[in-house]
Amino acid sequence: MYRNVKYIIDKYGNHPAFYRYKTKNGSALPMFYVYDSYITTAEKWANLLTSSGSQSIRNSPYDALFIALLVEKKHRYEILRGGFDGIYTYFATNGFTYGSSYENWAKLKFFCDQFDLMFIPSVGPGYIDTSIRPWNTQNTRNRVNGKYYEEALSAALQAHPSIISITSFNEWHEGTQIEKAIPKRTSNTVYLDYRPHKPSLYLDLTRKWSEKYSKERATYALDHQLPVS
Question: Is 44 a residue whose pLDDT tops 80?
Fold first, then answer.
């Protein structure tokens, strides 16, 4: 893992498109979202992510923010022991996991605040993956012409998160895309579109809520002396 982090930062770290997040102490650190982070034990993560770890990146040129995926409630303390900097929830289906359920976001934010972790809820415009998982109809979430997306974004803002992540920009096979969409059909697939709204509906909603979040985040950060990047 250390070699992978070193390779990424050495090869891409100076590129202007390489994202860095400004931390409380003013450092601009790379940020890595780790999908299925719970598969690797907390002890192995701690080797990389704690200052006493055998291959620690902390306080080195390869220091970075590592964000773990929280699926189950019990993952909270494993993430903490692993030395992660924060959690994200990834899934676009409200109610699918403990982490992706809006009703739990305030509690997760409270936990993160207790241990100085970043809380990053993930929102999506809807969900439908039955073209690749025909058995998964129970996790389908109708877009309701943008209402589902706006409800998710509203719930995320209410938790005063560090960042909001979006699932996804273009995962068409799971019906979570927000990029422009026009009607399209192939011999065996009918692609989702946003009619009767224009093709940019979800980009427009993203812009609207991003502006709202930026304003609220700036106010909240000022009140709590937090960075606003």
Answer: yes
